[in-house]
Design goal:
Blueprint (H helix, E strand, L loop, with lengths): L1 H14 L3 H26 L8 H17 L25 H12 L9 H4 L11 H4 L8 H7 L13 H10 L9 H9 L3 H8 L3 H14 L5 H21 L1 H24 L26
Helix pairs in contact: 1-2, 1-3, 2-3, 3-4, 3-12, 8-9, 8-11, 10-11, 11-12, 11-13, 12-13
Length: about 300
């Protein structure tokens, strides 16, 4: 209950109309988050009653979303990678490992689980690699990116630590994050390797660039628990790259401009729905294609 209340208040904070209201709601959410974490750790430290296994899995999923959203500040100069490094800076990217442990404990695919119908065909918490990843399809990798990171038909995650991140980012470079394609975006964190994560912790410029490229694609999406970090830490990455390697910042900006151009072309080329009076009726449909939203 505390975790659900905490996440709900985080959502309210994201929607707040004033900074004061947002901070107040965020503080309230953190109190519930703290209570939930204390109870959660106590429960996980002993034998797990069968009746609690679904609650354990659901709470873990909510903790992941909360960790993704939460930042101590919206000031880009006070967040990673600009601030001094701390052990927990990239903890939100390590949630996948924790979910693998929870999967073994809770087993949400078991017959008596409320999640059985949704997850029964899965063998673990991570998504199944898509065909383009299995076949190592590098056809969408931008030429400059491929040259910079050494991406070829012969490269793979074993001989090139940047291979998987580049492959994944190239697939989503012209998409706008929404409920319908969120899995495509989360491949980036789901398939992160320990070697790449280590480079991020060391603030390797190329690794930071790739995370910044991902942030730049997520920041204008419709998922509130993703966009805040993408906006704030994404700007921090841009500032940091400008200080460390201007070449990488220029490439990031070039990719951003190209993304806007391609998405605008696709927008104007899409099928129009016009009513009997000649007015277009689908200009403000949301990501599910049916609910009118503010454009």
């Amino acid at each position: 209950m505390h975790m659900i209340l905490g996440l709900t208040l985080m959502h309210d904070s994201a929607l707040a109309h004033s900074p004061t209201q947002s901070i107040s709601l965020q503080n309230a959410s953190l109190r519930h988050w703290s209570h939930a974490t204390t109870i959660y750790q106590r429960l996980l430290s002993g034998p797990i009653p069968p009746s609690q296994r679904d609650a354990i899995w659901a709470t873990g999923v909510h903790l992941g979303a909360a960790s993704f959203w939460y930042l101590e500040t919206d000031d880009p100069h006070a967040v990673w990678p600009l601030k001094h490094s701390e052990p927990g800076d990239l903890a939100w990217m390590k949630i996948g490992e924790g979910k693998r442990h929870l999967w073994r404990i809770a087993d949400p695919t078991r017959e008596d689980s409320v999640f059985n119908r949704v997850l029964k065909k899965k063998t673990g918490p991570c998504p199944t690699p898509p065909e383009w990843m299995i076949s190592n399809d590098t056809s969408l990798v931008p030429k400059k990116v491929g040259l910079l990171f050494g991406i070829t038909e012969e490269s793979n995650k074993e001989n090139n630590v940047y291979h998987f991140p580049v492959l994944i980012l190239s697939r989503i470079q012209h998409l706008r994050l929404s409920h319908t394609n969120v899995l495509d975006f989360l491949y980036f964190t789901a398939f992160i390797t320990p070697e790449f994560l280590s480079l991020l912790e060391q603030k390797d410029p190329k690794a930071v660039f790739l995370l910044g490229w991902w942030f730049s694609m997520c920041r204008d999406g419709t998922l509130w628990w993703v966009t805040r970090r993408a906006r704030v830490e994404g700007e921090a990455v841009r500032i940091w790259l400008g200080r460390v390697d201007r070449r990488l910042l220029d490439l990031l900006e070039e990719l951003g401009r190209r993304r806007v151009d391609v998405m605008e072309e696709r927008f104007w080329a899409r099928d129009r729905v016009v009513d009997e009076e000649g007015f277009e009726t689908n200009w403000a449909l949301d990501s599910r294609g049916r609910i009118l939203t503010v454009a």
